[in-house]
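Hi everyone, sorry if this is the wrong subforum. Our group has a chain we'd like a structural model of before ordering constructs, and none of us has done structure prediction before. Sequence below.
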Amino acid sequence: MASSTDIADTSLAGPAAESVVPFTKKVLYGSGSFAEFTWQWSVQSLAMPIYNVCFGVNPALVGLVLGVARIWDAITDPIMGSISDNSRSKWGRRRPFIFAGAIASGLTYALLWMAPRGMPQWAYVAFFLVASLLFYSAYTVFSVPFYAFGYEMSDDPRERTRVMGSRIIGNSLCGLLVAPWIYWLAQRNLFSDTIQGIRCVGLATGLVMMGFALVPALFLRDQTQARVAHQEQVSIWASLRYSLTCRPYLILIGGFASALLLFAMVSQINFYLAAFYVFQGDTARASLWIGWAQAVQHIVVIVFAPWLARLANRWGKKKTCITFLSCIAIGALMNFFAYQRDMPWLMIFPPFVMMFGWASLWMFVPSMIADVTDWDELQHGLRREGMFGAIHCWVVKMAFSFGALCSGVLINLTGFQIKLAEAGAAQPEGTFSRMLLLAALFPAVGVGGAMLLLSRFPLTEAAMVRVKAQLRERHASGDELDGESH
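Answer:
Right subforum, don't worry. Here is the predicted structure as tokens:
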């Protein structure tokens, strides 16, 4: 066992040559995250504008559909994680599923926006529900193995942060170039109306993102294929039990869920404040400014992420993540002053400030989950990145599903009525004040809970040095656990 001095020195050393992921491989992995971001986020952001504003469906029902679809993910994500972990194909554990899921996700994404005109409300709800269940099933097949694939690309804790940095940069390039502009593009004069526009733009987006999502399946290789070739298969129930009793993992997931859930509950409100308060019903102008606000967010990530990774080398992942999470609370509270009819450019500032916190959360929590997989192997003798990735995906999706479910109800509770907006009439007094209060306070409270939980995460850089040293000794001696031991 290394001495305390050795541990301190090693914790400051760079990754071994074999643990470094070449830049080209990070770019190839980031290509998949370009598609992942579009499929993950644009459905949430487009559901209300298309199904509520264009088709007239009650926002509570739109939120209900999103919630039901994500509850379906609660079933499919762990199943997919277990299937992926137990797969033993010549192409690896992850790549065949990434390939199939990429194709299915692209096609079903386009289907989401193909609802026929002139249907009654119940028919729109039924169409959106069926299309959403198909899409999220396909997205699970892609996303769960894709997350796990990223955990496996390096066994060095610091290099994992850089890999996750490439993933969020891929997300942000999409957030800069594609995702914020889908609704805006659908409203161009090239189309007869927004409904025709979203059909065409949705189809094109689904096909293009399919191409990006196929890249990691076609051009990257499974790094753990040889190591797990003889690992015994573990039932989904045993794998779930191990994961859900893993204290470091539960701390990470709990903190992540706290920040994401309360933000998701009010994220749709920003569209209504921009479209119906600042621009008084002019959704075309609102979509342009919302697009610019989101684009600025992602410029922050592209510029900030490499610097954030370097800062974590000095401070450690946990301290860096907690420090910048405060930016989410600060940015959320800025919403009180950001929606001004004579100064619409102020809307850019809250998401700009918040993105420093979101960048740290999305970069460091997955990187720390990858560290947990090493700790878990030390405890149980198994590599189960798929199940850890599945539960992480599930938490993200459930946060947004419950958030979407609540968002429609919260919009109704503020007093907002789409029929008044369509008629050019004023909303009930206090509607937009209540929206501002929700948009400011909910994210701030959520991130406070996240910071409290993450402060208790035990796997520091020094602790991971000890974990890696013990794993190397075990691998060298061939003394593996049987997969069922605690």
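For your construct planning: The chain has one domain: 22-222+236-477. The CA atoms of residues 278 and 341 lie 5 Å apart.
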